[in-house]
């Protein structure tokens, strides 16, 4: 019976989830990002930290949207856990600083005691970064508990064995020649009417969607979500970032990876336009073939005038177990994916990369 219902409901449920999961308001998003940025710059450390870094030697990895759950049918992190653990082992052994960018725990659908009981391995892997003082935890909308529950600090200490501060954002700051570059990070739910303190959304997810999803075992986070144009929320985030001087914005929340302000599909169109302009016919044919294999029939977008100012870490809960994240290391910024090979071993792939000094930050 479950398989029959899955065949009937999977597509409409995913379509409904995509439609109801986000309702960003540009005015609210802009105001929220402005206020948080100003608070961090003013030194209000309860909101976030400003961290100077050396782009040539310091290493950062950013993951978001694990949505760690109860290992039941509604747990969209379950299949990705081995990739996540392999990634953390790699980054800890290579002395990366880990920024967890929100929605790490699924606390709309689950009690904190349940999440603690079923995620001891992942919390243990994160603790290794904490022991090195190389960890920052930022809250999102699905783990807002960490910011507003009076017992949050007690539970964090019981999970990690020591006090862990919670922030809404962080700013990394570095000097590249004459340019002072800031990398502003926050989860990205701010200003989303479906997510930002919305009691109805929380009730619907915990009491209606959660049990329904648990029975059908449907994960709406398919890799196909990357083969589209930017969601409205990502577009609004890009527009905000493009108006800031020498500032990158990195968020999560939408589960849609974005690199240099473009999704995977948008990057293909951008490369196709460049190949045609340079008369690289064979490269253009290959890129056109990649686009056509996605079976998408849309008007080719024009990205002239776009700046490389917005990035999105994607998520750690794709339905095939893949996870995506952002690396900042060796003077580069990279979009990476961890996936299973033919023998079910986790492997790291660099999807996109760019030297920080080569980013187009102004027209």
TrEMBL record:
Domain of life where this protein originates: Bacteria
Gene Ontology MF terms: hydrolase activity
InterPro entries: Calcineurin-like_PHP (IPR004843), Metallo-depent_PP-like (IPR029052)
Gene3D superfamilies xrefs: 3.60.21.10
Domain Calcineurin-like phosphoesterase: 59-257
Protein name as it appears in the record: Metallophosphoesterase
Species per Swiss-Prot/TrEMBL record: Mucilaginibacter xinganensis
């Amino acid at each position: 019976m479950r398989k029959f219902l899955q065949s009937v409901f999977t597509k409409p449920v995913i379509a409904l989830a995509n439609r109801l999961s986000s309702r960003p308001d540009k005015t609210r998003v802009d105001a929220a990002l402005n206020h948080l940025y100003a608070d961090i710059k003013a030194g209000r450390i309860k909101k976030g930290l400003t961290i100077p870094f050396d782009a040539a030697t310091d290493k950062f990895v950013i993951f978001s949207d694990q949505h760690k759950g109860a290992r039941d049918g509604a747990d969209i992190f379950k299949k990705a856990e081995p990739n996540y653990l392999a990634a953390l082992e790699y980054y800890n052994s290579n002395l990366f600083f880990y920024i967890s960018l929100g929605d790490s725990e699924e606390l709309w659908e689950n009690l904190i005691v349940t999440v603690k009981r079923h995620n001891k391995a992942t919390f243990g892997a994160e603790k290794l970064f904490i022991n090195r003082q190389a960890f920052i935890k930022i809250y999102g909308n699905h783990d807002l508990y960490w910011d507003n529950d009076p017992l949050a600090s007690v539970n964090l200490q019981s999970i990690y064995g020591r006090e862990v501060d919670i922030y809404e954002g962080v700013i990394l700051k570095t000097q590249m020649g004459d340019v002072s570059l800031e990398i502003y990070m926050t989860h990205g739910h701010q200003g989303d009417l479906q997510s930002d303190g919305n009691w109805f959304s929380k009730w619907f997810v915990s009491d209606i969607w959660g049990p329904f999803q648990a029975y059908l075992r449907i994960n709406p986070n398919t890799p196909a979500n990357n083969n589209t144009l930017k969601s409205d929320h990502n577009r609004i985030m890009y527009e905000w970032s493009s108006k800031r001087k020498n500032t990158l914005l990195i968020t999560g929340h939408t589960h849609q990876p974005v690199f240099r302000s473009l999704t995977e599909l948008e990057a293909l169109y951008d490369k196709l336009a460049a190949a045609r302009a340079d008369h690289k016919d064979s490269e253009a044919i290959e890129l056109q073939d990649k686009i056509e294999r996605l079976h998408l029939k849309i008007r080719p977008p024009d990205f002239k005038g776009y700046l490389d100012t917005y990035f999105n870490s994607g998520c750690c809960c794709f339905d095939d177990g893949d996870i995506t994240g952002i690396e900042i290391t060796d003077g580069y910024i990279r979009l990476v994916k961890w996936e299973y090979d033919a023998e079910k071993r986790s492997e790291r792939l660099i999807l996109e990369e760019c030297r920080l000094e080569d980013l187009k930050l102004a027209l």
